[in-house]
Write a structure and sequence with these properties.
The chain has about 160 residues and is of the alpha+beta class.
Amino acid sequence: MTEFSHVDAEGRARMVDVGGKAPTARVAHATGEIVMTPATLQAIEAHDMAKGDVLTVAQLAGVMAAKRTAELIPLCHPIPLTQVKVTLHPDVNIPGVRCDAEVRTIGVTGVEMEALTAVSVALLTGYDMAKAAEKSMEIRGIRVLCKQGGVHGDYTAPPR
């Protein structure tokens, strides 16, 4: 039988003890996108949304979310983050907005969940700010692009 790191002997979920691990530099990049009509994208780029500057508010929401990941995901450890960078790029080829997040720490566990949370909340914020113009927007493709550091080594997602 396989032993699971987040399950105790009685089968209950538990937080893994990372206290014996040495701190190392870690980084994770995540991405995702929100698909919308060209008209909604144009309104976002023109700062013509009733709730204000969609991209700036979504960027800040993503940074804030990364810092609070352990409060949202039950078995995540609180991590002292050294950098959170969230960028949103309007893209007429989607059409929509692509979000990228880079999260860094020097710690005992990785920051993939923080990067994914940053992207997810940034895109959800974009939806919230633009939903009066379009309720049919679709959030998709949220994934880890790469991560560096830790016992499992580096990871790069295959191209899509």
